[in-house]
């Protein structure tokens, strides 16, 4: 299934193999989705003034907003949105012009702002606000508003990160085969 897919200034979203995009999602412009990624109901993603790149086996859950920042004198490249592989983006998350590494879990209703870098193997707690320009170091749990390093991840949490992404690969495959409009 593919949602509401629109080009902007002649650039349309592109998709890897076996991607799932819910029919209620809206994707506009310069967006690239990696193999086996999934976009769930009511996601809004605009790659209009910069690009969005989503890695393989990454899931963007219900009601997320994905956007970018334009080029400016202070930021000559602007801030694209780059999301790595095996990332789980929880419900109602806002990602704006940031770089998210691989094997990340972003909890529900988190907000990650322009110029943020999230290194690999990180958990961001539900409701966390990551202010502009901050770097979240690999191997930690971050919580709060503004985000603070809470503690190192346990081995179980580290193992859960790719497992969570794999669960969504299986779910999107099930949806692709079994969901029908009625």
Individual helix count: 1
Q: Describe the largest sheet.
A: 12 strands, parallel
Structural class given helices, strands, pairing? mainly beta
CATH topology: UDP N-Acetylglucosamine Acyltransferase, domain 1
CATH superfamily: Hexapeptide repeat proteins
Low-confidence stretches: none
Q: Globular, elongated, flat, extended or rod-shaped: what is the shape?
A: globular
Helix content: 10-25%
Portion in strands: 35-45%
Organism: Pseudidiomarina insulisalsae
Protein name: Gamma carbonic anhydrase family protein
Features:
13% helix; mainly beta; single chain; 8-stranded mixed β-sheet; 182 residues; UDP N-Acetylglucosamine Acyltransferase, domain 1
Compose a concise summary of this entry:
By secondary structure, this protein is mainly beta. It has one helix spanning 155-178, and strands spanning 4-6, 14-15, 20-21, 26-33, 38-39, 44-54, 59-60, 65-67, 81-83, 88-89, 94-96, 99-100, 104-106, 111-112, 117-118, 122-124, 129-130, 135-136, 140-143, 148-152.
Structure write-up:
This protein is mainly beta and 182 residues long. The chain is 13% helix and 36% strand. The chain is built from 1 helix and 20 strands. It has one helix at 155-178; strands at residues 4-6, 14-15, 20-21, 26-33, 38-39, 44-54, 59-60, 65-67, 81-83, 88-89, 94-96, 99-100, 104-106, 111-112, 117-118, 122-124, 129-130, 135-136, 140-143, 148-152. The longest helix has 24 residues, at 155-178. It is globular. The protein starts with a strand and ends with a helix. This is Gamma carbonic anhydrase family protein.
